[in-house]
Amino acid sequence: MTSLGGAKIRLVYADHQGDPQKGRAEAERLITQEKVSAIVGTYQSAVAVTVSQTCERYQIPFVSADNSSPSLHTPRPEILLPRGTPLTKCSRRRCSTSTTR
After folding, report:
1. What total of structural domains would you count in the chain?
2. Whose CB among 5, 11, 48, 99 lies 3.0–4.6 Å from 67's, allowing a Cys bridge?
3. H helices then E strands: how many in the chain?
4. Residue 87 lies in a domain
């Protein structure tokens, strides 16, 4: 990606098989062994809840747009990016609080 100084993006896949505990285990494996910078996905809300808790514990961004559980829709400002923060300012553990205009 030229906008990231030529950085390469590697996609790593995992299958939770619709099981929340497998989702938690796979999220931990992706974070601790594969050293991913973020997790995207899950479909079932029950899996998304356990994966989001795991990501929060390790301070890894988690993005999932297909869930309906109310617990996943509660705003939590401590994990939101400040408006205008480019993802290029995010590191493995935190995102810069500076904004762009």
Report:
1. 1
2. 48
3. 2, 2
4. no
